[in-house]
Structure to design on (253 residues):
């Protein structure tokens, strides 16, 4: 399976142009787990450029990000300076047995071999450890207005997302997957983030359909010019609240 996040351009975009959804999700998870103090050690599997790891500040006293793509890791230490980072895969985690109190996976399990990952997660987690899986869709909606949904449909029609690269996951799928974990807390969420037109443009160019179009020969500058021109009337030169919809699932040993 080709990794859609492996280019230097994608890594740079992830480091600087992703909306702050991760901290909001982690805040919800912290409350739902009834935490009154941080976990001791958190492992963030598939941490990318460190954005999801940065969200663990305050959630854990020590955080370790794990990422197979070196292009992403080049940015991670700057993105989350309080954390440590390791190159490695979810299927062969380079940590000792019972070394983590919580393992987080933000959209990364869609791209890994789950039959190999779950035994590894069980191995590195302490006896009362928690696996937190979450994901969210691209921000494609305004609250109470259809303009961005309509634009996004045209965006995906013009630059289709890559096929057969990511498996579907949900709390129900995870609960029935025979993972060795039991589902304890889960929730569907909708998080609104106020974004400027310029930030949204930079953000949307980090989506995997753009990376796939570039990989297939479409000039990046041409994609950016089309997005900039067609998004201008949608945002009308002002900040807008963009909705991000997703889920989280907490699984215990």
């Amino acid at each position: 399976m080709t990794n859609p996040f492996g280019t230097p351009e994608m890594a740079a975009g992830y480091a600087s142009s992703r909306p702050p959804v991760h901290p909001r999700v982690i805040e919800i998870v912290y409350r739902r787990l009834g935490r009154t103090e941080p976990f001791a050690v958190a492992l963030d599997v598939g941490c990318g450029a460190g954005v999801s790891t940065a969200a663990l500040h305050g959630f854990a006293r020590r955080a370790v990000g794990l990422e197979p793509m070196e292009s992403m890791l080049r940015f991670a230490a700057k993105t989350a300076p309080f954390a440590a980072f390791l190159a490695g895969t979810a299927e062969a985690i380079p940590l000792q047995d019972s070394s983590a109190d919580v393992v987080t996976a933000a959209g990364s399990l869609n791209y890994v071999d789950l039959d190999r990952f779950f035994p590894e997660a069980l191995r590195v987690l302490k006896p009362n450890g928690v696996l937190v899986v979450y994901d969210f869709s691209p921000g494609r909606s305004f609250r109470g207005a259809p303009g961005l949904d309509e634009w996004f449909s045209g965006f995906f029609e013009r630059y289709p997302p890559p096929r057969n690269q990511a498996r579907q996951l949900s709390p129900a799928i995870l609960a029935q997957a025979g993972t060795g974990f039991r589902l304890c807390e889960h929730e569907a969420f909708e998080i609104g983030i106020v974004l400027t037109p310029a930030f949204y443009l930079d953000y949307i160019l980090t989506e995997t359909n753009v990376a796939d179009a570039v990989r297939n020969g479409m000039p990046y500058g041409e994609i950016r010019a089309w997005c900039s021109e067609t998004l201008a009337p949608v945002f009308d030169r002002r900040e807008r609240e963009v909705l991000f919809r997703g889920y989280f699932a907490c699984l215990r040993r």
Notes: The mean pLDDT is 92.
